[in-house]
Amino acid sequence: MVLFDRPRSGERAVLVHLDLQQVNEREDLEEFRDLAVSAGAVPVAVATGARRLPEPKYFVGSGKAEEIRQLVEAEQAELVLVNHSLSPAQERNLERLLNCRVLDRTGLILDIFAQRARSHEGKLQVELAQLRHLSTRLVRGWTHLERQKGGIGLRGPGETQLESDRRLIGGRIKSLNRRLEKVRRQREQGRRSRQRAELPTVSLVGYTNAGKSTLFNRLTEDAVYAADQLFATLDPTLRRLELEQGNALILADTVGFIRHLPHDLVEAFKSTLQETREADLLLHVIDASDEERDAKIGQVDEVLTEIGAEKVPQIAIYNKIDHCEGTAAHVERDAEGKVSRVYLSAATGEGCELLQQVLRDWLGVKRRRYCLHLPPNASRLRARLYELGAVVDERIADDGTSDLDISIEPQYLESLRKQGEFASLLPPA
Q: Which of 20, 67, 91, 311 has a 20 to 30 A CA-CA distance from 192?
Protein backbone atom coordinates (compact mmCIF):
# COMPACT_ATOMS: atom_id res chain seq x y z
CA MET A 1 0.00 0.00 0.00
CA VAL A 2 1.49 3.33 -1.09
CA LEU A 3 0.88 5.97 1.55
CA PHE A 4 3.04 8.79 0.19
CA ASP A 5 3.47 10.06 -3.32
CA ARG A 6 6.42 12.42 -3.28
CA PRO A 7 6.62 15.14 -5.96
CA ARG A 8 8.54 14.18 -9.07
CA SER A 9 11.77 16.07 -9.59
CA GLY A 10 11.08 19.20 -11.59
CA GLU A 11 7.38 19.36 -10.76
CA ARG A 12 5.95 22.76 -11.74
CA ALA A 13 4.70 24.56 -8.65
CA VAL A 14 2.81 27.73 -7.77
CA LEU A 15 3.94 29.23 -4.45
CA VAL A 16 1.42 30.90 -2.14
CA HIS A 17 2.58 33.32 0.55
CA LEU A 18 0.56 35.58 2.85
CA ASP A 19 1.81 38.36 5.12
CA LEU A 20 -0.15 37.88 8.32
CA GLN A 21 -0.43 40.51 11.03
CA GLN A 22 0.40 38.05 13.80
CA VAL A 23 4.19 38.06 14.13
CA ASN A 24 4.37 34.42 15.30
CA GLU A 25 2.51 33.31 12.13
CA ARG A 26 4.75 35.11 9.63
CA GLU A 27 7.00 33.17 7.28
CA ASP A 28 9.87 34.15 4.97
CA LEU A 29 9.17 33.99 1.23
CA GLU A 30 12.80 33.52 0.11
CA GLU A 31 13.29 30.69 2.59
CA PHE A 32 10.08 29.09 1.28
CA ARG A 33 11.36 29.35 -2.29
CA ASP A 34 14.57 27.60 -1.17
CA LEU A 35 12.49 24.88 0.51
CA ALA A 36 10.52 24.32 -2.71
CA VAL A 37 13.70 24.05 -4.79
CA SER A 38 15.27 21.73 -2.18
CA ALA A 39 12.25 19.43 -2.54
CA GLY A 40 12.82 19.26 -6.31
CA ALA A 41 10.01 21.61 -7.39
CA VAL A 42 10.32 24.28 -10.08
CA PRO A 43 8.53 27.45 -8.92
CA VAL A 44 6.75 28.93 -11.96
CA ALA A 45 4.65 31.60 -10.21
CA VAL A 46 4.16 33.22 -6.81
CA ALA A 47 0.86 34.43 -5.39
CA THR A 48 1.24 36.85 -2.50
CA GLY A 49 -1.24 38.72 -0.33
CA ALA A 50 -1.89 40.11 3.12
CA ARG A 51 -4.53 39.24 5.69
CA ARG A 52 -5.20 39.98 9.31
CA LEU A 53 -6.31 36.39 9.93
CA PRO A 54 -6.47 33.27 7.72
CA GLU A 55 -9.80 32.60 6.00
CA PRO A 56 -11.43 29.43 7.38
CA LYS A 57 -12.35 27.83 4.05
CA TYR A 58 -9.27 28.34 1.83
CA PHE A 59 -6.81 30.01 4.24
CA VAL A 60 -6.62 32.74 1.56
CA GLY A 61 -9.68 34.79 0.59
CA SER A 62 -12.01 33.53 -2.14
CA GLY A 63 -10.72 36.18 -4.57
CA LYS A 64 -7.11 35.16 -3.98
CA ALA A 65 -8.08 31.48 -4.32
CA GLU A 66 -9.55 32.23 -7.75
CA GLU A 67 -6.37 34.10 -8.70
CA ILE A 68 -4.34 31.03 -7.72
CA ARG A 69 -6.64 28.80 -9.81
CA GLN A 70 -6.02 30.99 -12.86
CA LEU A 71 -2.24 30.86 -12.24
CA VAL A 72 -2.37 27.06 -12.04
CA GLU A 73 -4.18 26.89 -15.38
CA ALA A 74 -1.98 29.49 -17.09
CA GLU A 75 1.29 27.93 -15.93
CA GLN A 76 0.06 24.32 -16.23
CA ALA A 77 1.23 23.78 -12.65
CA GLU A 78 1.01 20.32 -11.11
CA LEU A 79 1.38 21.42 -7.49
CA VAL A 80 0.49 24.34 -5.21
CA LEU A 81 2.76 24.96 -2.22
CA VAL A 82 1.44 27.11 0.62
CA ASN A 83 3.94 28.80 2.95
CA HIS A 84 1.81 28.19 6.04
CA SER A 85 0.24 25.32 7.96
CA LEU A 86 -3.16 24.39 6.54
CA SER A 87 -5.93 22.54 8.30
CA PRO A 88 -7.03 19.29 6.61
CA ALA A 89 -10.28 20.99 5.51
CA GLN A 90 -8.42 23.97 3.98
CA GLU A 91 -6.08 21.65 2.11
CA ARG A 92 -9.04 19.61 0.85
CA ASN A 93 -11.06 22.67 -0.22
CA LEU A 94 -8.12 24.13 -2.14
CA GLU A 95 -7.55 20.85 -3.97
CA ARG A 96 -11.18 20.72 -5.05
CA LEU A 97 -11.02 24.30 -6.34
CA LEU A 98 -7.59 24.13 -7.98
CA ASN A 99 -7.86 20.55 -9.26
CA CYS A 100 -4.25 19.76 -8.35
CA ARG A 101 -2.22 18.66 -5.35
CA VAL A 102 -1.83 21.15 -2.52
CA LEU A 103 0.96 20.88 0.06
CA ASP A 104 1.42 23.14 3.07
CA ARG A 105 4.71 24.15 4.68
CA THR A 106 4.68 21.20 7.10
CA GLY A 107 4.07 18.68 4.31
CA LEU A 108 6.86 20.24 2.24
CA ILE A 109 9.40 19.99 5.09
CA LEU A 110 8.35 16.38 5.71
CA ASP A 111 8.92 15.62 2.03
CA ILE A 112 12.42 17.12 2.12
CA PHE A 113 13.23 15.07 5.22
CA ALA A 114 11.98 11.94 3.42
CA GLN A 115 14.38 12.64 0.54
CA ARG A 116 17.37 13.42 2.79
CA ALA A 117 17.10 10.57 5.32
CA ARG A 118 19.93 8.10 4.76
CA SER A 119 20.28 6.03 7.92
CA HIS A 120 17.84 3.32 9.02
CA GLU A 121 16.87 5.38 12.07
CA GLY A 122 16.39 8.55 10.03
CA LYS A 123 14.07 6.80 7.59
CA LEU A 124 12.00 5.36 10.43
CA GLN A 125 11.74 8.77 12.10
CA VAL A 126 10.62 10.51 8.92
CA GLU A 127 8.05 7.83 8.09
CA LEU A 128 6.61 8.11 11.60
CA ALA A 129 6.29 11.90 11.27
CA GLN A 130 4.70 11.53 7.83
CA LEU A 131 2.17 8.99 9.07
CA ARG A 132 1.17 11.21 11.99
CA HIS A 133 0.69 14.10 9.60
CA LEU A 134 -1.19 11.98 7.05
CA SER A 135 -3.55 10.47 9.62
CA THR A 136 -5.30 13.86 9.99
CA ARG A 137 -5.72 14.14 6.22
CA LEU A 138 -7.03 10.73 5.24
CA VAL A 139 -10.36 12.06 4.01
CA ARG A 140 -8.53 13.87 1.21
CA GLY A 141 -7.96 10.65 -0.69
CA TRP A 142 -11.66 9.75 -0.71
CA THR A 143 -13.37 12.96 -1.80
CA HIS A 144 -14.85 11.11 -4.80
CA LEU A 145 -16.98 9.06 -2.39
CA GLU A 146 -19.93 10.55 -0.58
CA ARG A 147 -19.31 10.47 3.17
CA GLN A 148 -22.63 9.90 4.83
CA LYS A 149 -23.59 10.34 8.44
CA GLY A 150 -23.17 7.31 10.68
CA GLY A 151 -26.04 5.03 11.64
CA ILE A 152 -27.66 1.79 10.43
CA GLY A 153 -28.18 1.93 6.69
CA LEU A 154 -26.30 5.22 6.37
CA ARG A 155 -22.67 4.06 6.41
CA GLY A 156 -21.13 5.03 3.08
CA PRO A 157 -18.26 3.21 1.35
CA GLY A 158 -15.98 6.20 1.88
CA GLU A 159 -16.33 5.92 5.65
CA THR A 160 -15.57 2.20 5.55
CA GLN A 161 -12.41 2.81 3.53
CA LEU A 162 -11.32 5.55 5.90
CA GLU A 163 -11.72 3.25 8.87
CA SER A 164 -9.65 0.61 7.09
CA ASP A 165 -6.91 3.15 6.29
CA ARG A 166 -6.86 4.42 9.86
CA ARG A 167 -6.39 0.87 11.15
CA LEU A 168 -3.54 0.26 8.71
CA ILE A 169 -1.83 3.53 9.59
CA GLY A 170 -2.38 2.98 13.31
CA GLY A 171 -0.76 -0.45 13.06
CA ARG A 172 2.16 0.91 11.09
CA ILE A 173 2.72 3.71 13.64
CA LYS A 174 2.81 1.14 16.47
CA SER A 175 5.30 -0.98 14.49
CA LEU A 176 7.53 2.05 13.82
CA ASN A 177 7.45 3.06 17.48
CA ARG A 178 8.58 -0.44 18.48
CA ARG A 179 11.43 -0.42 15.98
CA LEU A 180 12.48 3.10 16.96
CA GLU A 181 12.47 2.12 20.62
CA LYS A 182 14.94 -0.65 19.78
CA VAL A 183 17.14 1.86 17.91
CA ARG A 184 16.90 4.29 20.84
CA ARG A 185 18.10 1.60 23.23
CA GLN A 186 21.09 0.94 20.96
CA ARG A 187 21.81 4.69 20.78
CA GLU A 188 21.58 4.90 24.57
CA GLN A 189 24.11 2.07 24.90
CA GLY A 190 26.47 4.04 22.64
CA ARG A 191 25.93 7.15 24.75
CA ARG A 192 26.72 5.23 27.95
CA SER A 193 29.88 3.86 26.32
CA ARG A 194 31.02 7.40 25.56
CA GLN A 195 30.26 8.41 29.13
CA ARG A 196 32.38 5.50 30.37
CA ALA A 197 35.16 6.70 28.08
CA GLU A 198 34.69 10.01 29.92
CA LEU A 199 35.07 12.19 26.83
CA PRO A 200 33.02 15.41 26.80
CA THR A 201 30.57 15.90 23.92
CA VAL A 202 30.38 19.12 21.90
CA SER A 203 27.34 19.42 19.63
CA LEU A 204 27.00 21.65 16.56
CA VAL A 205 23.56 23.27 16.37
CA GLY A 206 22.10 26.03 14.26
CA TYR A 207 19.66 27.08 11.58
CA THR A 208 19.57 24.88 8.50
CA ASN A 209 22.26 25.71 5.91
CA ALA A 210 24.35 27.71 8.40
CA GLY A 211 27.42 25.58 7.58
CA LYS A 212 27.47 23.05 10.43
CA SER A 213 28.56 20.08 8.32
CA THR A 214 31.24 22.12 6.54
CA LEU A 215 32.64 23.16 9.92
CA PHE A 216 32.39 19.56 11.18
CA ASN A 217 34.41 18.36 8.17
CA ARG A 218 36.96 21.13 8.62
CA LEU A 219 37.57 20.28 12.29
CA THR A 220 37.52 16.48 11.99
CA GLU A 221 39.01 16.20 8.47
CA ASP A 222 36.04 14.00 7.65
CA ALA A 223 33.79 13.84 4.57
CA VAL A 224 30.26 14.18 5.96
CA TYR A 225 27.79 15.17 3.24
CA ALA A 226 27.60 18.98 3.05
CA ALA A 227 25.75 21.02 0.45
CA ASP A 228 24.34 24.51 -0.06
CA GLN A 229 20.77 23.37 0.51
CA LEU A 230 18.27 23.21 3.33
CA PHE A 231 18.40 20.11 5.56
CA ALA A 232 21.48 18.57 3.88
CA THR A 233 22.13 16.76 7.20
CA LEU A 234 19.46 14.71 8.99
CA ASP A 235 21.37 11.89 10.61
CA PRO A 236 23.69 12.83 13.49
CA THR A 237 27.38 12.06 12.98
CA LEU A 238 29.79 11.72 15.90
CA ARG A 239 33.57 11.76 15.62
CA ARG A 240 36.41 11.84 18.12
CA LEU A 241 38.25 15.15 17.75
CA GLU A 242 41.88 15.07 18.84
CA LEU A 243 43.22 18.44 20.00
CA GLU A 244 46.79 19.27 20.95
CA GLN A 245 48.18 18.88 24.47
CA GLY A 246 46.56 15.46 24.91
CA ASN A 247 42.99 16.80 24.71
CA ALA A 248 40.14 15.00 22.98
CA LEU A 249 36.36 15.31 22.75
CA ILE A 250 33.39 13.92 20.84
CA LEU A 251 32.06 16.31 18.16
CA ALA A 252 28.46 15.80 16.99
CA ASP A 253 26.93 17.16 13.77
CA THR A 254 23.14 17.40 14.06
CA VAL A 255 20.03 18.26 12.02
CA GLY A 256 19.50 21.94 11.27
CA PHE A 257 16.55 23.81 12.72
CA ILE A 258 14.04 26.02 10.92
CA ARG A 259 11.29 28.39 11.97
CA HIS A 260 8.08 26.58 12.92
CA LEU A 261 9.74 23.17 12.76
CA PRO A 262 6.79 20.72 12.53
CA HIS A 263 5.93 19.30 15.93
CA ASP A 264 5.64 15.78 14.48
CA LEU A 265 9.27 16.03 13.37
CA VAL A 266 10.43 17.21 16.80
CA GLU A 267 8.61 14.25 18.35
CA ALA A 268 9.95 11.73 15.82
CA PHE A 269 13.54 13.01 16.10
CA LYS A 270 13.64 13.05 19.90
CA SER A 271 16.33 10.38 20.14
CA THR A 272 18.45 12.20 17.56
CA LEU A 273 18.00 15.54 19.32
CA GLN A 274 19.01 13.90 22.61
CA GLU A 275 22.62 14.22 21.41
CA THR A 276 22.09 17.97 21.68
CA ARG A 277 20.23 17.87 24.99
CA GLU A 278 22.94 15.81 26.72
CA ALA A 279 25.97 17.61 25.25
CA ASP A 280 28.50 19.33 27.51
CA LEU A 281 28.78 22.32 25.15
CA LEU A 282 26.82 23.65 22.16
CA LEU A 283 28.50 25.43 19.26
CA HIS A 284 25.66 27.52 17.80
CA VAL A 285 26.67 27.96 14.14
CA ILE A 286 25.30 31.18 12.60
CA ASP A 287 25.48 32.45 9.03
CA ALA A 288 27.18 35.82 9.63
CA SER A 289 26.27 36.98 6.10
CA ASP A 290 22.52 36.40 6.59
CA GLU A 291 20.51 39.59 7.12
CA GLU A 292 17.92 37.52 9.01
CA ARG A 293 20.49 35.99 11.36
CA ASP A 294 19.09 37.56 14.56
CA ALA A 295 15.61 36.18 13.89
CA LYS A 296 17.09 32.75 13.09
CA ILE A 297 19.11 32.80 16.31
CA GLY A 298 15.82 33.27 18.14
CA GLN A 299 14.23 30.38 16.22
CA VAL A 300 17.11 28.05 17.16
CA ASP A 301 16.84 29.07 20.82
CA GLU A 302 13.10 28.29 20.70
CA VAL A 303 13.76 24.75 19.42
CA LEU A 304 16.52 24.24 22.01
CA THR A 305 14.00 25.19 24.71
CA GLU A 306 11.41 22.84 23.21
CA ILE A 307 13.81 19.86 23.39
CA GLY A 308 15.11 20.80 26.87
CA ALA A 309 18.61 21.92 25.84
CA GLU A 310 18.31 25.61 26.75
CA LYS A 311 20.59 25.26 29.81
CA VAL A 312 23.51 23.64 27.98
CA PRO A 313 26.46 26.11 27.77
CA GLN A 314 26.67 27.76 24.35
CA ILE A 315 29.28 29.53 22.22
CA ALA A 316 28.11 31.41 19.11
CA ILE A 317 30.09 30.58 15.96
CA TYR A 318 29.65 33.27 13.31
CA ASN A 319 30.44 31.37 10.11
CA LYS A 320 30.84 32.49 6.46
CA ILE A 321 32.88 35.61 7.23
CA ASP A 322 34.36 35.18 3.74
CA HIS A 323 30.99 36.56 2.55
CA CYS A 324 31.20 39.56 4.92
CA GLU A 325 33.35 42.39 3.68
CA GLY A 326 35.65 43.80 6.33
CA THR A 327 35.07 41.00 8.87
CA ALA A 328 38.18 39.17 10.05
CA ALA A 329 38.47 36.04 12.17
CA HIS A 330 38.47 36.89 15.86
CA VAL A 331 37.18 35.86 19.29
CA GLU A 332 34.86 37.94 21.48
CA ARG A 333 34.50 37.54 25.24
CA ASP A 334 31.77 38.57 27.68
CA ALA A 335 32.13 40.77 30.78
CA GLU A 336 33.41 37.76 32.77
CA GLY A 337 36.13 37.01 30.23
CA LYS A 338 34.42 33.88 28.89
CA VAL A 339 34.38 33.27 25.13
CA SER A 340 30.97 34.23 23.75
CA ARG A 341 31.57 34.45 19.98
CA VAL A 342 34.03 33.12 17.42
CA TYR A 343 34.13 34.56 13.88
CA LEU A 344 35.42 32.20 11.19
CA SER A 345 34.92 30.68 7.76
CA ALA A 346 34.49 26.92 7.66
CA ALA A 347 34.78 26.99 3.85
CA THR A 348 38.22 28.64 3.75
CA GLY A 349 39.46 27.54 7.18
CA GLU A 350 40.08 31.12 8.34
CA GLY A 351 39.61 31.31 12.11
CA CYS A 352 39.18 27.56 12.64
CA GLU A 353 42.47 27.44 14.58
CA LEU A 354 40.94 30.05 16.93
CA LEU A 355 37.99 27.75 17.55
CA GLN A 356 40.31 24.82 18.25
CA GLN A 357 42.17 26.95 20.80
CA VAL A 358 38.83 27.94 22.38
CA LEU A 359 37.96 24.24 22.70
CA ARG A 360 41.36 23.47 24.21
CA ASP A 361 40.91 26.30 26.71
CA TRP A 362 37.40 25.08 27.50
CA LEU A 363 38.76 21.60 28.18
CA GLY A 364 41.64 23.08 30.18
CA VAL A 365 39.26 24.92 32.50
CA LYS A 366 37.56 21.63 33.23
CA ARG A 367 40.86 19.76 33.72
CA ARG A 368 43.63 19.77 36.29
CA ARG A 369 47.27 18.74 35.96
CA TYR A 370 48.74 15.84 37.95
CA CYS A 371 52.04 13.94 38.03
CA LEU A 372 51.94 10.15 38.43
CA HIS A 373 54.71 7.66 39.15
CA LEU A 374 53.63 4.27 37.83
CA PRO A 375 55.29 0.87 38.43
CA PRO A 376 55.94 -1.44 35.44
CA ASN A 377 52.82 -3.52 36.20
CA ALA A 378 50.43 -0.51 35.87
CA SER A 379 49.99 -0.99 32.12
CA ARG A 380 46.17 -1.07 32.35
CA LEU A 381 45.99 2.32 34.05
CA ARG A 382 48.54 3.75 31.63
CA ALA A 383 46.52 2.49 28.65
CA ARG A 384 43.30 3.88 30.16
CA LEU A 385 44.85 7.34 30.61
CA TYR A 386 46.03 7.33 27.00
CA GLU A 387 42.55 6.24 25.89
CA LEU A 388 41.10 9.26 27.72
CA GLY A 389 43.56 11.59 26.02
CA ALA A 390 44.83 12.61 29.47
CA VAL A 391 48.56 12.01 29.00
CA VAL A 392 50.51 15.21 28.28
CA ASP A 393 54.01 13.80 28.72
CA GLU A 394 55.65 10.51 29.74
CA ARG A 395 59.17 9.66 30.90
CA ILE A 396 60.16 5.98 31.18
CA ALA A 397 63.06 4.98 33.48
CA ASP A 398 65.48 2.11 32.97
CA ASP A 399 63.75 0.03 35.65
CA GLY A 400 60.43 0.13 33.72
CA THR A 401 58.73 2.70 35.94
CA SER A 402 57.24 5.76 34.29
CA ASP A 403 56.43 9.32 35.25
CA LEU A 404 53.29 10.69 33.61
CA ASP A 405 52.11 14.28 33.39
CA ILE A 406 48.35 14.09 32.94
CA SER A 407 45.53 16.60 32.40
CA ILE A 408 42.13 15.28 33.46
CA GLU A 409 38.84 16.45 34.91
CA PRO A 410 38.60 15.79 38.68
CA GLN A 411 35.37 13.80 38.41
CA TYR A 412 36.92 11.50 35.81
CA LEU A 413 39.94 10.96 38.05
CA GLU A 414 37.59 10.11 40.90
CA SER A 415 35.71 7.59 38.75
CA LEU A 416 39.05 5.88 38.01
CA ARG A 417 39.83 5.81 41.74
CA LYS A 418 36.56 3.96 42.35
CA GLN A 419 37.98 1.11 40.29
CA GLY A 420 39.85 -0.51 43.18
CA GLU A 421 42.89 -1.68 41.27
CA PHE A 422 43.84 1.93 40.38
CA ALA A 423 43.05 3.57 43.74
CA SER A 424 46.52 3.31 45.28
CA LEU A 425 48.20 4.69 42.15
CA LEU A 426 46.15 7.87 41.79
CA PRO A 427 46.20 11.16 43.74
CA PRO A 428 42.92 12.49 45.22
CA ALA A 429 40.76 14.37 42.71
A: 311
Q: Which residues lie closer than 8 Å to 160 by C-beta, 6 or more apart?
A: none
What is the distance between the alpha carbons of residues 366 and 388, in angstroms, rounded to a whole number? 14
Tell whether the model's pLDDT for residue 114 goes beyond 50: yes
Give the start-to-end residue ranges of the domains of the chain.
Answer: 11-116, 199-365, 368-423
| pLDDT range class, residue 382, cuts 50, 70, 90 | confident
CATH number of 199-365: 3.40.50.300
Nearest to 188 by CA among 272, 262, 128: 272
Label residue 122 left, alpha or beta by phi (over 0 means left) and psi (-120 to 50 means alpha): alpha
Q: Look at residue 139 in the predicted model and tell me its pLDDT.
A: 55
**Integer Cα distance of 358 and 273 in angstroms:** 24
Q: Does this chain's domain 11-116 share its CATH topology with 368-423?
A: no
Q: Give residue 1's pLDDT band: very low, low, confident or very high (50, 70, 90).
A: very low
Mean pLDDT, rounded, for 27-54: 87
Strand order in the sheet with 391-396: 368-374, 402-408, 391-396
Q: How far apart are CA 307 and CA 59, in angstroms?
A: 30
Over residues 348-374, the mean pLDDT reads 85
CATH of domain 368-423: 3.30.70
Which of 332, 330, 256, 324 shows the shortest CA–CA distance to 290?
324
| Residue type present at position 41 | A
CA distance 254 to 235: 7
Distance CA 247, CA 372 (A): 18
Angstrom CA distances, 16 to 28, 55, 66, stand at: 12, 14, 12
Give tens-digit pLDDT for 69-80: 999 999 999 899
The Cα–Cα gap between 184 and 121 comes to 9
Average pLDDT over residues 87-109: 89
Please state the pTM of the whole predicted model.
0.69
Smallest Cα–Cα separation from 30: which of 298, 291, 294?
291
Fold of 11-116: Rossmann fold (3.40.50)
Segment 40-45 mean pLDDT? 90
